């Protein structure tokens, strides 16, 4: 029986790296992608992962040719993955009144949305031909309702949820599963700079364990941790007037400074 393979973007830190370690511990071979390939390779070596169990690919998910090329290189060198996880993502504060922030929105969407679709692209055909495989999109509870200062991020993650749902129904009956993971507040470099309360903040290792089990089960959609799933459902049901009152005074995500 062949050793399963997982392809993960954004593997140099945070959620992507924690998932890489969790899948490695479950016996998977790794195909890991990051812009900082040397840094990622140093991490792989530090974990004591054998060379025949992990390969590192340098790619930028914002550049379609780059990430698609990494996917094709993975197929050529390691075979068609069993699981593909689009974990690369950015979260940057956004203010529509600031002209410079329009480029921030472009950057966020290129990474979080175009990057997700380009990550999946090389594998859809081979997986459907094989009639097996799992594509995993990483969204956020911020995509369930818009938050102050999160205009770009919330919109991008709402789009990830809808995109993955569209892809899921498109691939139904073809043997390929699409899983949407919706993290709440996870303790990673992406959240440590947030200057506001983060309820149910979860260690990234605990998140990775729950995400692994969700992916392994082929669950179509899951919010992690479950407490944030309940909160998200309640917020979704709130009338706009009550929701606006509840979050309008909340701290904003910090804008990018130059």
Please identify the top-level CATH class.
Answer: Alpha Beta
Average pLDDT metric: 90
Strand line-up in the sheet with most strands:
3-2-1-4-5-6-9
General form: globular
Proportion in helices: 40-55%
Alpha carbon gap, first and last residue:
52 Å
How would you sum up the major sheet?
7 strands, parallel
CATH superfamily: NAD(P)-binding Rossmann-like Domain
Using only C-alpha atoms, the radius of gyration works out to: 18 Å
How many structurally independent domains? 1
What is the N-to-C order of secondary-structure elements (H for helix, E for strand)?
EHEHEHEHEHEEEHEHH
Number of strands: 9
Structural class: alpha/beta
Can you describe this structure?
α1 (14-25) packs across α6 (204-217). The protein is 47% helix and 16% strand. A seven-stranded parallel β-sheet has the order 3-2-1-4-5-6-9, with helices on both faces. The protein contains eight helices and nine strands. The protein is globular. By secondary structure, the protein is of the alpha/beta class.
Brief write-up:
This protein is of the alpha/beta class. It has a single domain, classed as NAD(P)-binding Rossmann-like Domain (Rossmann fold), CATH 3.40.50.720. Helices cover 47% and strands 16% of the residues.
Summarize the SSE layout with pairings.
Blueprint: E1 5-8, H1 14-25, E2 29-34, H2 37-46, E3 54-58, H3 64-78, E4 83-86, H4 101-130, E5 133-138, H5 151-171, E6 176-183, E7 186-187, E8 202-203, H6 204-217, E9 221-224, H7 226-237, H8 240-247
